[in-house]
Known about the structure:
Shape of chain B: globular
Strand content of chain A: over 45%
Helix content of chain A: under 10%
Largest interface: A-B, 25 and 25 residues
Helix content of chain B: under 10%
Order of helices and strands of chain A: EEEEEEEEEEE
Structural class of chain A: mainly beta
Structural class of chain B: mainly beta
Oligomer: heterodimer
Largest sheet of chain A: 6 strands, mixed
Shape of chain A: globular
Amino acid sequence: GEDVEQSLFLSVREGDSSVINCTYTDSSSTYLYWYKQEPGAGLQLLTYIFSNMDMKQDQRLTVLLNKKDKHLSLRIADTQTGDSAIYFCAESHPTGTASKLTFGTGTRLQVTL
Amino acid sequence: GAVVSQHPSRVICKSGTSVKIECRSLDFQATTMFWYRQFPKQSLMLMATSNEGSKATYEQGVEKDKFLINHASLTLSTLTVTSAHPEDSSFYICSASDRGDEQYFGPGTRLTVT
Lengths: 113, 114
């Protein structure tokens, strides 16, 4: 079955690094994604990683994937107040013409001054 | 590029009435559209997947007669909540895909049923 878990809440100080963790159970995932959701808004794709990679860096964002342990993390360097939001990881599974996403439970990131 | 819009952004309806939510891909052709619902402080749950010109595939536990999905063109899908009840109040989000792995998300529609 598909089950994606995240811790519910993370609080960091502005300027520090944030690390948001995600565990999943389906080893057949093709891509793993990180999305950001601000209050009352839709989802913004932050970054993604192909399942045969173990790391991807994109400016302040670093994604680490441990496929053996089915563990994904998102590190945000130099966290800013504008990074306060809910972060969802998601895994994708091919289904015909498009891939289906299973979302994690979401982590609320609070950035304090 | 890859912009998806939803209309309306907010809607309030009375119990027992039906409400239609539109999802449009503005600058690409969406062969597949997905509909999600999100309860407060919870994750997105996939309701159904629709491919242009064919019937939608509903996830287990989602009533297809209550949540009518139409994907009549490559840029438009609609979700109609029929005979809405207060427990249908939720945030409904659509996404669109153009054959790739990536889904482009709309801004969501907040439905409140009174």
